[in-house]
């Protein structure tokens, strides 16, 4: 059986990526960048970004570093969130 704490942590981390992505505005559209745009900027495919945001995959640390750089936050800022609150937000987003 999967460790639920780990599953919740992945979902919370995914919501954090989603939240930070929403803060980056595409100057051409005036809207937040899409999963596809983040993928293009990081060299990842849209499917990978979606899997990460849904908490369905275990990202390599290097992958997280590339995403963090593109989201224009520090490592400390990226991981500075309330895991319980973000887990609830991720579940509500479904």
Automatic annotation (TrEMBL):
Pfam families: HTH_3 (PF01381). GO terms for molecular function: DNA binding. Residues 33-78 form the HTH cro/C1-type domain. InterPro entries: Cro/C1-type_HTH (IPR001387), Lambda_DNA-bd_dom_sf (IPR010982). Keywords: DNA-binding. PROSITE patterns: HTH_CROC1 (PS50943). CDD domains: HTH_XRE. This is DNA-binding transcriptional regulator, XRE-family HTH domain. It comes from Chryseobacterium taichungense.
